[in-house]
Amino acid sequence: MNCSQARKILYPSPERAVLTIDTAEATSHLRECDQCRAFFASQTEWSSTLHEKLEVEMAPEPLRERVAKLVQKRQRSRAHWPFEGPMKKTAVAAAVIVVGLTAWGLYQMPSQRFFEEVCNDHAKYLDAESQLPSSDPATIESWFRDKAEVGVHVPKLENADLLGSRLCSLKEHRAALIFYRLQDRPVSLFQLSASGVSLSALDRSMIDGSPIWHKSFNGYSLVAFESRGVITVLVSDLQEGELLPLALSARRGYENITW
Length: 259
Prior knowledge:
46% helix; 8-stranded antiparallel β-sheet; 23% strand; alpha+beta; single chain; globular
């Protein structure tokens, strides 16, 4: 069993891993693998540090409007409720909380499924099965010109080798998928239109005055940012702390483009 397989089985942590037929083998791999032990230790420390620094984020405007309308509807109908006095107020408050939590959950679920699909796509192409094998950014950008739904920029990622690219389908999006390898580990970079994609299912941190989004799904680290209507997502089984500098480098490169 390799590191990628073991981390996926033991995600989000060895202590909270779902018991399957492969868990014992993955746990055995973890005991013998310094890199995997360091990965889970770093993930725990990294997540804790980021959560301490995360800002309180206001719910999106469409969601706030939806909750407000539902609250107003509840308030108009509460005269017919079989409660009086304090019991009525308690029931209304409880209903508002349930409505808000339900609406927030419904708002986030599609986004989370989308980014889980991004990670699944990364896992399908760990061997960088390219439609266009190339280490030349200009060649790849030209190849995507009439294929992707956005202008594709192939960033130079420090110490990472560019291997090639392919066009992939992520729900209704035709996304550019660009393959890199860093320290013998596969790194996938996706670029797609921001239209219809919400980053709300991810954790947000402010870095250099701009938001960067990150989370882990099924043992894979994911870091994303939006610039000029384009969402760029990097996925790898590297630690989030190792993937974040690559994403920041890609963001700086994208913002400096003169179209």
